[in-house]
Structure formats: C-alpha cells, structure tokens
Amino acid sequence: MRYSIKALSEYIRGTWTKKDIKQWLSMLGLSLVFTEQDEDVLFEIEAPANRGDLSSAIGLIRALSPCGEIEPVYPDITIKEESSKILPIEIESFNDCIFYAGRVIESVKVTDSPQWLKEKVVAAGFRSVNNVVDITNLVFWEFGQPLHAFDLKCLKGKIVVRRAINGEQITTLDGMKRDLTSEVLVIADAEKPVAIAGIMGGMNSEVNSTTTDLFIESAFFNPVRIRRASKLLGLVTDASARFEKTIDPGFVVIGLNRCCRLISEICGGRVAPLCVSGDNQAKEKLITVRKTKIVSYLGCEIPEDFITSTLKKLNCEVHADAENLIVKVPAGRIDIEIDVDIIEEIAKYWGYDRIPEQMPISSIAYNVSSQEYLRLDALKDTFVKLGFCEVINLGLCDENRKISFSDDVIEIINPLSRNYAILRNSLIPELLQNLKDNYNRKIEKARIFEIGNVYFKTNSGFTEEPYAGAGVLNFGSFYAFKGNIEFVLGKIGYQKLVQKISLDRFGVFVEFLKDNRRVALIYLPDESILKEYDLEQQSVMLAEINLCDFVKNGFSQITYRPVSKLMPVKRDISLIVPNSVCWQKVEELIFRDFKIVEKLEIFDIYRGKNIPRDSTAVALTLTFSNPEGTLTRQEVEHIVQDILDVLKNHFSITLRQ
Amino acid sequence: MDEKDLSLKLEVIVAEAIQRLSKLNNTEELEKWRIQYFGRKGIFASMTSQIPSMPVEMKPQAGALINSAKRKLTEAFEERKKNLLTLQDKKTEFNLNFGLPGLKPETGSLHPVTLVSREIVRIFQGLGFGVHTGPEIETDFYNFEALNMPADHPARDMWDTFYLDSERKFLLRTHTSPVQIRVMEKISVPLRIIAIGKTFRRDDFDASHSPVFHQVEGLMVGPDITFSNLKAVLIFFLKELFGTRVKVNFLPSYFPFTEPSAEISISCVICEGKGCQTCGFTGWLEILGAGMVHPEVFRKSGIQQNNVTGFAFGAGLERIAMIKYGIDDIRQFYTGDMRFLKQFG
Ligand SMILES: [Zn+2]
After folding, report:
1. The pTM is what?
2. Distances (CA, A) of A186 to A165, A170, A189, A247, A312
3. If you average pLDDT over residues A496-518, what whole number do you get?
4. Ion ligand 1 nearby residues (CB, 5 A)
5. Omega into B190 within 30° of 0, i.e. cis?
6. What separation in Å is there between the alpha carbon of B263 and the centre of ligand 1?
7. pLDDT score at B48
8. How confident is the model at residue A36 (pLDDT cuts 50, 70, 90)?
C-alpha cells in the first residue's frame, strides 16, 4: 500500500515529522521505499503475511501510535438513510462467507471523480476509473476493507454467496472470460454469477456512466477460500491479497458506511438501509502473559508502565495482577494469538537495539555433528589434493537429455522452464557441460569435481544419494585419470573392486563393482557425444562415485606399518600384456603366490610402435621384502624368473625384450 | 733466520692459507685471498724480496722453499676455484635463466560456497554447535506445516516452491529450516546445531537470484534461551565472519516459525556505512533472518517441556560469499568457469 505524510495527516490526531515517520517505520522493520516530493514524503509498505492491518491508513497509524504522541482519527462515517430499498442476501455456507453487508444507493450520477479524489486514489496507487469506483478504492485505502459496487439494475432479485458450479463461466472486469469450479466462491444473483467473491467483479454488473442505482458490497470472506480461488484462477488483486490475510471484522460495516457517505456526498444518491447476513461478532482474544516470561524470553527487564501504555495504544485492554498481564486484543490483529506474540510487540516498540546482548550460559551439551556432512566436506580436500577444482551445479537439468544412463528421473511438475525441468540422476551431464563451457571460453585444459546429491524415482517415491563426480579436459592420460579415481576410491574404503568394461552409443564405461553393485564409473564419451558438446577431437574423461557407503563408513582407516630399516630390494621389469588380460587378476595372483613381493608399481604404460597391436607394454617396479637383509642378487633373479613363468602360463604375458 | 726457521715459517703460512681457502664462499673472497698471497704486495712477494739480504749459502735453498710453498698454494687455489664456480658458470652449466618466473602449478581449488561453509562451521563449532544435514527432497510437512504454515497459509507465498508430485506432498526444500524439525525430533534438548545445504526456489535467474542456492541454518534450544542470547551469538558470528569493525543491526521482521522475528544487517563492508551501489546507498546489508523459535514449531517437533525456549537463524551462503569477496552476480557461482573458480584456490 502507498502512503504519504500529507495523505495520512487527515487521519491523525497529534503531530509527527518527516524524521519521526522514517525512524518509526524503520524501527518496526517495515520494508519501505521512501521518495521525497516537495514537502511530502511518499512511501510504500509491503505488509507481512500476518499483518493485513498495516494495509490501511487507519491500521498503519494505529501501529505507529505507540512510537509517538499520535492516534488515528476516523473519517466521517455518518449516513442519512433516505431510501428503503432492500436486497435480500443469502449465504450458502457461513464457513465460506462469515459476514456479508450491503446497501443500495439510488439515483447516483456516475462521472469522473473530482480532482482531489483523483489525486488521492492515484497517490494511494490506484488508477482513477470513475467517482464510484474511486470511492471504493479510497475507503479500501482508509480502512483496509475491500468493497465492491454493482449496478443494481443488473442484479436479479437477490444476492447469493455460493460456490460456483463446475463449468460456470464469468467475464471479469479485466475482460477475461474465466472458467469456474466449485473451489471458487462467487457472488450471484437469482440467475448468474456477478462477481468472483473477494477477487474481482463481473463485467455483467459493472458500474458505468449509465448506472443510476448501486449496490455496495462489504463482506468478510474466509481467507482460505479466497486464497485457493485466487491460486486456481491465477488472479491476484488488491482485494484478494487483503482477504487472504484476514480482514478486520470491525471495519466491514464501518467501511461500507464510509463508502456510502462519500458516494451520497460526491455522486448524489439516496442511501438505503443496511442488508446483512452472517455473524459479525468481532472475536476479541484474551491472552495471559506471565510477567516473568517477558524477562526470561527477552533476557531483560522492560518497565511495566511502558508495556501497558504501548499495548493500550495498540487498542488492547490490559489488566495486570501480581504475576500476569491479561491482554484483550482487538480482532483485527490476527498476528497476536499467544503470549509470545505479545512479547514480540513489546520488544518491537521497546526497540531491538535496546535489548542487551548476553552470551548463553547454559552448559554445553555434547552436540555430535552429522558425520555425513563432515565426511562429504572432507572428501573435497582429496580431490583438491589431486589438483581438481570444485564446481557446484544446480542439479536442475534440461528435459531433453543428450546423455542419460537411466530413466528413473524425477520431473518437476512446475519447472521454471524446459531447461531446468528434471532433477539430475548423475553428475556427469552437468560436468560435461562445464567442460564445454570452459572450452568455449578458450580454456582448453580443465580438471573439475563436484560433490552433491543426485535424485532418483523409486517405487515408493523419491530418493537422493550423495555422489562425487570428476571431469578432465585435455589433462593427462587415461591412466592418470583412472589413477586419480582409484586413489579416491582407495581413500573412501574401496580397496579391491571388480571392474567391468562396456561400450554403448554414449561411449566407453569402466564400471567399478562391489558385490555386483556399481559404486563408481569412468566414462569416456563417444566422439558423437563430444560433437554435441562442441568438444570434438578433445580429450574428455568423466567419472562418478556413489558415496552412500562412504557417508556411512567414512575414510579408510590409517593403519600404520613400521618402516623397514633395511634397504628394500627392487627390480624393474617391462612386460607385454595382451589386452584381454584383466590386470587385477595379475596382481592378485602375484601377491597370492609370491608373498615376498611387497609392492608392485606401474610406472609406464605404452602402446604403439614395436608392440603387438593386441597388447600393451607395462613397465613396473617390484619391491621385495627383505626382512633379514640377506636377499642376494641371484635369489632375486630366480624369483623374477618364477614370476615371469607364472605370468606367461596364466596370461600369456611375456617379457618385453 | 736459518733454513729451518724459514721452512717452519712457510709451513705455517701454507697451512694457514689452505685453512682459510677452505672457508671461502665465493670468487670475490677467492680473489682477495689470491692478492693477499700472490699479489705484488702479497706475502710471497715480500718474502722473495727478502732473499737478497739473506746469507749467501741460504739463498738457493730459500728460493726453492718459497717456490715449493707457492706451488702448493697455487694447486690448492686452482682446486678451490674449480669448486667455487661463478653464477655465470652455473647458468651455463644448467642452461637456466634464474630470473625467469616459475611455471604455475596445476593446483585444485575449493568453491567459494565451500570456503564460506567451512568458515561458518569453524565459528559455530567453536561455540559448541554440531553440524547437521537434511534431505533436499522434502515433504510439505517439514518444509511448511511443521514450521507453522498450515495448508493455505498466506506466508507460504514467501517461498516459491518446486513440486515433485501433483498432490504437492513432495517438494524441493525452499530453505534449510526443515532441518530444525528433523533435529529436534532426533536429538534431545538442550541442543545447538547448524545445518548447511542446498535450497531451491522457483525464482528466475538475475544478478541476485538463483533457483538454487545454499543456506546455513542455526538452532539453539534449552532452558531459558533468550532473545539477548540470540543477539550475542549472532553478533559474535558476524564479527568473526566479517571482522570486528562491522556494526550489527537488529530490526523486527516476520517469519511464521519465529516469534519475535528479526532481520539482521551489517554495516556495509564496502563503503563502511557511507552508502554505495552494493548496499543500495543505505549503508546496511541484510545478512540474516532470525528469531525465537515459535511454540508451534516446538509442538510440531514433539518438544513438550514448558521452560524450553530457543532461537533459530538462517542466511544465504552465496550472499555471504558475494559480500566477503565482492562478487556482484550470483550466477557466477554456477558457471563452472575456471577463471572464477581458480581465484579461490
Ligand atoms: Zn555500501
């Protein structure tokens, strides 16, 4: 709602300055935009969801009144009833419409508004339409009570507040034809809907220059009903926004009378008696606040006379006994329901800055951290150690997936756009996109990783799992990348995993399996995929690791073994290994049959010239344990020869000459 | 002086010279040494000049002794000189230009959101807070209802939500506040925790909005936790994070799950409160939302004790990182751009 000091001054007893109002509004934390114009200050208040009362001049002044020596003054609401015309009102459900009031006004003249009225409604943020509509808007601004004016000649027989019938239609004042459902509350006459209750009037009963007799509506609709209809129709108006936040029942008739008075004053016309249906008993709330609770809640003592005078200025009645304050709260303050709401009011007007700071002195409980968080966080260091840069991706992906490894993908039912319509079920597509984006920025080399959740649809609903992903662009060999991934796998407790190599139209996959379950994979995209990412001819490798086991079990235990004081005995050998051989089996066999072999490290892998096409040259260092320090050269030669024999027999691996 | 004396004297000179030679560190010192012994006014020159005044029978012997001493020292000198190569010699030897810059190491780096998370975790662990997490796919109950926002509550509009099913039961959490409920269901009071994680809102991208961002949530619950405790803890936190010079301002606000609620700002770290683009010329930067836990939230979390109170707070990590590092566009965090990421290595 828009206000200005000049516009509000008519409704105030007491004085305030420009400086006061700025300070008061900011002290109460009302988000606002100030503009100074001549001698005036214009500002806008976006009322919180529970403070509909601030969306009116009277309500705002009431809220500011404890800050200074001011109080709200109601405008003139007296009316002379000069007509006897009555329109019957029927309410189908008092749950949907708690109270409905209206008056007929006969013989009005609908014209442009006088200049002063135009200025007022424009300053309040409305468009000037005609004198009648402008008056309803002005009163809405004054009291926060939404009002609607119907052309009486368009209403057949009576007013019915009812649910719309599925399939019913209405053309609203904005010219849109709208399909209604039984979720929508309408105002109807004996034949047809004439307005969507609390949201917008219908074209079929619009007030225009041919209108002579009016019916003015002022009602209290169920906020939930208005909110649902507004969401359903995708139609938010000033009125619907106000009804959603619950109006002040005390202003329903006051607002109506104020409106009728102004109409008879400005548009002429004879006002008819009040027609009502429903219950307008304002439900004041009685709240007991323990005085000691105020202190123990805020952490400081606030003088009781300050508390009492503040609450009284807010229109509360306060009775104090030795232990308690008993506060009667006006119905319009829907935000005040329990004792802590009263305490908030006290704290706000006392000023948050005047509440002293005090570190908690309660004993420190043993607050265990979630290992899940700490482990995932620490794993980032492992990747950084290897030289990878951390990225964070949205996890919202394009519904047209260029690569997809499974179909159990979760769709967002109300996505921002098709580009962000599904939840990722793998980190790889976004990492590949990152590499592409970097390449397009002329960054030809990159190593990136991400740790984050991926999401799957399951039989019973939805699930999410932590994953680590990595990608390299033109950065080292396949073996280097695989070595990095294996290093991480080793750190997170995967010592010996079965590997499975496969190929499909997306590319080559090296899967790492534990108990037949895939825990990690390395992915080399097919050239056709790289082309889609503008990365043709580039070296691109990706990997991802499921971290479910890791977050449960943590990092591999560090088991210290004493460092041998004796000189190790090492031998380098170079082998020709047929590509069909599974290297893991080779290592297993060597370690099983030659306990003396302590370590086996590959230091070079080569394919190409002088190596058979179906084989790879592997150079490695064997380290032999030598606890007695007596291992001779000859003995080592023998062992190496034995190993070579075994490798030849089992795997057709030969010594490279 | 007889022959014996001369020979002894030379022996001492040679021994001393060799001793000093071995301690020389560079060619300049070496040259000084050479002049001292072999220069025109050097020790040997002066000894040689004394020969004519010696007894005749000593002359040939003396010459021979001096020459032999000189030979010894010349050998030692050449030997030492070989070891003491000049810088120029070194350059030639290794074929290096020592003045050229080194090659940039290929290091990894952490994302600025991770850096900020770690800083926050460090501060709160120091205050005895544990770190917790919760799921990113949440239910309506945890994201809204348990936080005192029943169905059709108008405050729900504060969080535009991505839904995963047509009944709108499952959603992507719009804040980390559901972790409050999950922790209170699990851990007994008193407790103090923070939670860090990804959150989702149906906001279009612009310089300060992203549909995905990160939050830190905090919760401290115990007997008689007060609003002034909230103030003290958050002032401590913000001063640790942004430096002791920042001023902290508490203003009333509205969140359905806290009462009273506060909006907390720090004095602008860029203009120090004078007003600039970043702070919208107000001198203040909004940084935290906080408040005393609403009794309804305790009730929904199954906490019954009467004297239990608590405070909660939340903040956006990207916003903190943007202020800390002067990043002006939130979209930067999700581009994966190495030129951005490497700056945080
Ligand atoms: Zn600034």
Report:
1. 0.87
2. 9, 10, 10, 18, 39
3. 93
4. B 268, 270-271, 276, 278-279
5. yes
6. 18
7. 85
8. confident
- Give the structural domain span for B319: 112-344
Mean pLDDT of chain A: 93
Q: Do B198 and A51 touch (CB under 8 A)?
A: no
Residue owning tokens 């309804």: B296
pLDDT at B93: 66
Compute the distance from residue B267 Cα to the ligand 1 centre, in Å: 8
Q: Which residue of B has its CA nearest to A295?
A: B226
Q: What is the pLDDT of residues A451-503, one digit of tens each?
A: 999 999 998 889 999 999 999 999 989 999 999 999 999 999 998 899 999 99
Least CB–CB distance from A352: residue in B117, B236, B262: B262
Q: Do B166 and B238 reside in the same domain of the chain?
A: yes
Q: In 3D, which of B213, B249, B253, B256 has the Cα closest to residue B234?
A: B249
What distance in Å separates residue A525's CA from the closest CA in chain B? 19
Q: Is residue B103 one of the residues assigned to a domain?
A: no
Residue that terminates a domain, selected from B46, B66, B94: B94
β-partners of residue A555 are none
Q: What is the mean pLDDT of residues A561-590?
A: 87
Same domain, B83 and B154: no
Nearest to B129 among A367, A384, A416 (CB): A367
Residue A310 distance to chain B (closest CA, Å): 16
Q: Please answer whether residues A145 and A254 qualify as being in contact, where contact means their C-beta atoms are separated by less than 8 angstroms.
A: yes
A-chain residue closest to B107, CA distance: A387
In this structure, the answer to whether residues B71 and B213 fall within a common structural domain is: no
Min Cα–Cα distance to chain A from B231, Å? 5
Name the token pair of A563: 């460092």
Within a domain: residue B107?
Answer: no
Q: Are residues B80 and B211 in the same domain?
A: no
Strands A569-578 and A498-504, by their bridges, are unpaired
Q: If pLDDT is split at 50, 70 and 90, which confidence band does B86 have?
A: low
Q: Are residues B38 and B121 in the same domain?
A: no
Which tokens hold the place of A487?
A: 């290093």
In this predicted model, what pLDDT tens digit does every residue of A598-630 receive, in sequence order? 899 999 988 888 888 899 999 999 998 877 777
Length of chain A: 657
Contact B155 A383 (CB under 8 A): no
Task: Give the per-residue pLDDT at A609.
Answer: 85
Least CB–CB distance from A416: residue in B204, B228, B256: B204
Residues B319 and B190 in one domain: yes
| Domains of chain A with CATH codes | 2-72 (3.30.56), 89-278 (3.50.40.10), 285-354 (3.30.56.10), 369-553 (3.30.930.10), 569-655 (3.30.70.380)
Q: For A160-213, give the DSSP string.
A: EEEEPPTT-EEEBTTS-EEE--TTSEEEE-SSSEEEETTTEEBGGG---TT---
Yes or no: say if A598 and A623 are a contact pair by the CB < 8 Å rule: yes
- Per-residue model confidence as pLDDT tens digits over B305-316: 888 999 999 999
Q: Which of B36, B68, B94 is the last residue of a domain?
A: B94
**Hey, what are A638's tokens?**
């023998």
A338 contacts B295? CB cut-off 8 A? yes
| pLDDT of A327 higher than 80 | yes
- Compute the distance from residue B275 Cα to the ligand 1 centre, in Å: 4
Nearest residue to A65 (alpha-carbon basis) of A103, A26, A13, A19: A13
DSSP H or E run through B38? helix B27-38
Same structural domain, B44 and B117: no
B20 and B162 belong to one structural domain: no
Residues A297 and B226: beta-carbon distance below 8 Å:
yes
d(CA A342, CA A240): 28
Nearest CA in chain A to B166: A413
**C-alpha–C-alpha distance, residues A420 and B88, integer Å:** 63
Q: Which residue of A has its CA nearest to B335?
A: A434
- Work out how many domains chain B is built from and give that number: 2
- The minimal CB distance from B111 to the residues A390, A394, A443 is found for A390
Residue B119 counted as domain residue:
yes
